[in-house]
């Protein structure tokens, strides 16, 4: 399934910038910006939103993210004018615009269906405290995190490795997206410094710089392969 993403903002610059940012991490995902009014002012445009949905007509589904309340109202109006089949393809997310778009784009890049993309966007709505509680530095590791114990049974297949970040930007933005995409290809449950390795926002919240120690742990049927793949990716410097 191909999921396209429409970014609706009162500002053309914000909509375009958000799309440009997401494309750095999800180059294959169709993304369209619908920002500002027809005359270049601040506001939202029924025509721009309608044209944006049309520009994503080749996608199996469209996820729309908006910045402010009236953007949702204009989007709802545009949806009312679509025929039933086109309307069924469009899903409006309540996620924060920038964080939600980035998370949704990465989920779409990894092959997620519309439900997975919407769930990824929704994960961006977690409060900063919710994210930081799983990624607060332990004091024992540079950029480390307090491991999260979900209390579940210990799996039979467990693998782990520790590696140092060598790329200049560390585990931020594009490298973090590459890490998530690689982790998502495996069935195993994977963690990096105690947080979910398949969650872009959780990994970016770690703010791991060059030289930080990264501990990768996995459990599940392909745990060792997942760890080996991610270690190789880190050691490669993410191609930077």
TrEMBL record:
Gene3D superfamilies according to UniProt: HPr-like, Phosphotransferase system, mannose-type IIA component
Stored Pfam families: EIIA-man, PTS-HPr
Reaction equation(s) it catalyzes: dihydroxyacetone + phosphoenolpyruvate = dihydroxyacetone phosphate + pyruvate
Record-annotated PTS EIIA type-4 domain positions: 2-131
Residue ranges of the region described as Disordered: 129-155
Top-level taxonomic group: Bacteria
UniProt entry keywords in alphabetical sequence: Kinase, Transferase
Domain HPr: residue ranges: 158-240
PROSITE patterns: PTS_EIIA_TYPE_4, PTS_HPR_DOM, PTS_HPR_HIS
NCBIfam families assigned: dha_pts, PTS_HPr_family
Function: General (non sugar-specific) component of the phosphoenolpyruvate-dependent sugar phosphotransferase system (sugar PTS). This major carbohydrate active-transport system catalyzes the phosphorylation of incoming sugar substrates concomitantly with their translocation across the cell membrane. The phosphoryl group from phosphoenolpyruvate (PEP) is transferred to the phosphoryl carrier protein HPr by enzyme I. Phospho-HPr then transfers it to the PTS EIIA domain. Component of the dihydroxyacetone kinase complex, which is responsible for the phosphoenolpyruvate (PEP)-dependent phosphorylation of dihydroxyacetone. DhaM serves as the phosphoryl donor. Is phosphorylated by phosphoenolpyruvate in an EI- and HPr-dependent reaction, and a phosphorelay system on histidine residues finally leads to phosphoryl transfer to DhaL and dihydroxyacetone.
Name of this protein: Phosphocarrier protein HPr
Species annotation: Curtobacterium caseinilyticum
């Amino acid at each position: 399934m191909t999921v396209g993403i429409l970014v609706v903002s009162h500002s053309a610059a914000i909509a375009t910038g958000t799309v440009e940012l997401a494309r750095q991490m999800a180059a294959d995902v169709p993304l369209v910006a619908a920002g500002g009014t027809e005359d270049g002012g601040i506001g939202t445009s029924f025509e721009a939103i309608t044209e944006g949905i049309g520009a994503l007509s080749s996608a199996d589904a469209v996820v729309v993210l908006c910045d402010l309340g009236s953007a949702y109202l204009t989007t709802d109006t545009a949806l009312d004018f679509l025929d039933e089949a086109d309307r069924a393809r469009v899903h409006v997310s309540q996620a924060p615009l920038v964080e939600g778009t980035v998370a949704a784009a990465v989920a779409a890049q990894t092959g997620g269906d519309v439900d997975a993309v919407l769930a990824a966007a929704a994960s961006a709505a977690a409060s900063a405290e919710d994210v930081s509680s799983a990624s607060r530095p332990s004091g024992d590791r540079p950029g480390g995190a307090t491991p999260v114990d979900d209390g579940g049974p210990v799996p039979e297949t467990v693998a782990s490795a520790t590696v140092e970040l060598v790329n200049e930007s560390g585990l931020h933005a594009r490298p973090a997206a590459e890490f998530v995409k690689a982790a998502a290809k495996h069935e195993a449950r994977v963690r990096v410094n105690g947080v979910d390795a398949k969650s872009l926002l959780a990994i970016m919240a770690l703010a791991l710089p060059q030289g930080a120690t990264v501990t990768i742990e996995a459990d599940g049927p392909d745990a060792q392969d997942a760890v080996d793949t991610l270690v190789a990716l880190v050691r490669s410097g993410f191609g930077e």
